[in-house]
């Protein structure tokens, strides 16, 4: 089983920004792990049950025989590890079993591109939003829309990674 995952964050610094949501998709079912809420003043904060949600996500990543992510090797896994203080050996285990088309292209072809470009180039369904819009959704408390967007990216990543052939930019 290939478990694709994607995260959304409130910024690019894992020491001060939040992982707002992580979604997984296994080829038939999507699941979202929501880590944030708005406090009584409308400020984005981690939920009280964050540790339980982090534990459930880590267990899912541990249990998957193989993982897939788009820029997960350089961004998603390191961000999760730093933000949630995941043990280095555990995060390394995720990296070792992670299929990441972005990383392959960056390392081999020395080119980078977005998931949207890869989908378009291969005649696949396009993305439903953007990372910048996801930051705004979190800040506005639009957590259902944020989760749907993240689930969609996880599903699209899964679809990219199970294809026999991909056209690359």
Walk me through what this model shows:
With 169 residues, the protein is of the alpha/beta class. The chain has one domain (2-161): Ribonuclease H-like superfamily/Ribonuclease H (Nucleotidyltransferase, domain 5, 2-Layer Sandwich), CATH 3.30.420. Helices cover 47% and strands 18% of the residues. The protein contains 7 helices and 7 strands, in the order E-E-E-E-E-H-E-H-H-E-H-H-H-H. It has a 5-stranded mixed sheet, with helices on both faces. A two-stranded antiparallel ribbon has the order 4-5. Strand 4 and strand 5 (44-46) form a beta hairpin. Helix 2 (72-84) packs antiparallel against helix 3. The mean pLDDT is 94.
Features:
single chain; 169 residues; alpha/beta; Nucleotidyltransferase, domain 5; five-stranded mixed β-sheet; two-stranded antiparallel sheet; globular
Explain the layout of strands and helices.
Layout: E1 2-9, E2 19-25, E3 30-34, E4 36-38, E5 44-46, H1 50-63, E6 66-68, H2 72-84, H3 88-96, E7 98-99, H4 101-109, H5 115-121, H6 131-139, H7 143-161
Parallel strand pairs: 1-6, 6-7
Antiparallel strand pairs: 1-2, 2-3, 4-5
């Amino acid at each position: 089983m290939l478990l694709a995952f994607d995260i959304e964050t409130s910024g690019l610094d894992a020491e001060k920004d939040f992982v707002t949501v992580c979604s997984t998709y296994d080829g038939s079912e999507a699941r979202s792990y929501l880590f944030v809420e708005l406090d009584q003043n409308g400020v984005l904060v981690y939920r009280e049950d964050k540790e339980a949600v982090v534990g459930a996500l880590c267990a899912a990543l541990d249990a998957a025989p193989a993982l897939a992510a788009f820029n997960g090797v350089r961004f998603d896994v390191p961000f999760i590890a730093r933000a949630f203080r995941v043990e280095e050996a555990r995060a390394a285990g995720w990296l070792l079993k992670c299929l990441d088309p972005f990383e392959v292209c960056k390392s081999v072809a020395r080119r980078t591109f977005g998931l949207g470009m890869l989908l378009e180039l291969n005649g696949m369904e396009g993305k439903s939003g953007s990372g910048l819009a996801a930051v705004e959704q979190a800040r506005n408390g639009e957590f259902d829309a944020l989760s749907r967007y993240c689930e969609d990216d996880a599903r699209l990543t899964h679809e990219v990674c199970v294809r026999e052939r991909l056209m690359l930019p």
